[in-house]
Amino acid sequence: MAIGILGMLIIIGIILSALNTSDFRTFLDLRSFLFIFGISATAAVITEQGIKHRIKVFSRVAVSTGWIGFLIGLILILGDSDFVKNSETVSPAISIALLPIFYGYLAKLFCGIWLKVIKVSSR
Fold it and tell me: What is the pTM of this model?
């Protein structure tokens, strides 16, 4: 279990170093995070299986929800013609629209790691 936690911390460190840009806030959006985490956690909680199955459900739902969040963001961006005409606001809006996909795949990555940790520690 300790090796799994250490591995997780190393992976988080590598990801954070890759995201170390001049403006780290580009990768942070509370609404997107809550959208992904809230729906995925709800899906995992209502699953009546064991912990491994719940983690798998969380992982799958996080990715699907990420794509749904992206589509919602894209629809909102493209639905406002005045907004699209202003080129200064479109790029930041698209980057925010992409964040749910990013969060969904990060959740899938960490769920996969935890499934491996649980598998190893249960032996």
Answer: 0.83
**Dist CA 102 CA 96 (whole Å):** 10
What does the alpha-carbon distance between residue 90 and residue 58 come to, in Å, rounded to a whole number? Answer: 31
DSSP code string of 68-100: HHHHHHHHHHHH-HHHHH-HHHHHHHHHHHHHH
104, 67 contact by CB (below 8 A): yes
Give the model confidence (pLDDT) of 2-35 as tens digits: 777 787 788 888 888 877 766 777 888 999 999 9
Cα–Cα dist 91/73, whole Å: 12
Higher-pLDDT residue of 79 and 102 is: 102
User: How far is residue 107 from each of residues 12, 55, 72, 102, measured CA to CA in Å?
Assistant: 12, 10, 19, 9
